[in-house]
């Protein structure tokens, strides 16, 4: 069997014909080389075609070239638009003034209302009737002016916030104080007297 295979390969490699992109190999083999018992004594013709492909040597595998270690600076943040210092922009419904000022007044009002109730036992209506109204108006005017001065200078609360005392924490505390003051007044109205 090895002899037949060697004969076949030598014959096939020895006969090359054809001019196209396919090479035609032709050989005449004795039938006993193929070991077919039915065709003993007759010659068989074998033809095969192979597409000619250029043999390229394998490219050497190179590691990627090291990149230069140039550090690109981080992108600079875009400058924030400057806060408007117009009176109408600051006190607009969505402006920086109203909610912050109302929240600060509500925080002071809630704490002072609870403190007076604990000290004297007066409800909110009695506190306002017994001289609390001038204190409320004076405190509201002073706190409003103190809150508006930085806004008119273009200083925002976000630029001064840091750590635990952030601008968002102040807004949330003011919102809770507003709700607490309303709940205190409503509870005292339903109860008919001071909460404590």
Structure summary, number of beta strands: 3
Main sheet: which strands, in order across? 1-2-3
Helical segment count: 6
Helix content: 40-55%
Radius of gyration in whole Å, from Cα? Answer: 48 Å
The proportion of strand residues reads: 5-15%
- Number of separate domains: 2
The low-confidence runs, each spanning 5 or more residues with pLDDT under 50, are 15-20
> Helix/strand-derived class?
mainly alpha
Oligomer: single chain
Terminal residue distance: 113 Å
What value does the average pLDDT take?
74
Strand and helix order: HEEEHHHHH
**Rough shape?**
elongated
Largest sheet: 3 strands, antiparallel
InterPro entries: Chloroa_b-bind
Protein name: Early light-induced protein
Membrane topology: Multi-pass membrane protein
Biased composition (Pro residues): 55-79
Walkthrough of the structure:
The structure is a single chain. The protein is mostly helical. It has 2 domains: 2-51, no CATH class; 87-191, no CATH class. It contains 6 helices and 3 strands. The chain has helices at 2-14, 87-90, 98-120, 124-152, 157-160, 167-191; strands at 16-17, 22-30, 43-51. The protein has a 3-stranded antiparallel sheet, covered by helices on one side. Helix 3 (98-120) packs antiparallel against helix 4. The longest helix is centred in the last third of the chain and has 29 residues, at 124-152. It is elongated, with a radius of gyration of 48 Å. 9% of the residues are buried.
């Amino acid at each position: 069997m090895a002899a037949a295979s060697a004969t076949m390969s030598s014959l096939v490699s020895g006969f090359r014909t054809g001019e196209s992109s396919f090479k035609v190999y032709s050989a005449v083999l004795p039938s006993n080389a193929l070991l077919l018992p039915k065709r003993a004594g007759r010659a068989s013709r074998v033809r095969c075609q192979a597409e000619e492909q250029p043999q390229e040597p394998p490219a050497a595998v190179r590691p990627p070239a090291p990149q230069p270690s140039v550090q690109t600076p981080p992108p600079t943040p875009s400058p924030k638009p400057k806060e408007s210092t117009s009176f109408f922009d600051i006190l607009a419904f969505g402006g920086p003034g109203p909610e912050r000022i109302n929240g600060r007044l509500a925080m002071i009002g809630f704490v002072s209302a609870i403190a007076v109730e604990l000290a004297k036992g007066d409800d909110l209506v009695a506190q306002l009737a017994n001289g609390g109204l001038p204190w409320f108006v004076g405190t509201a005017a002073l706190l409003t002016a103190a809150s508006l001065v930085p806004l008119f200078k273009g200083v925002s609360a976000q630029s001064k916030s840091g750590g635990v005392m952030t601008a968002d924490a102040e807004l949330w505390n003011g919102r809770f104080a507003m709700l607490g003051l309303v709940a205190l007044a409503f509870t005292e109205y339903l109860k008919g007297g001071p909460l404590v």
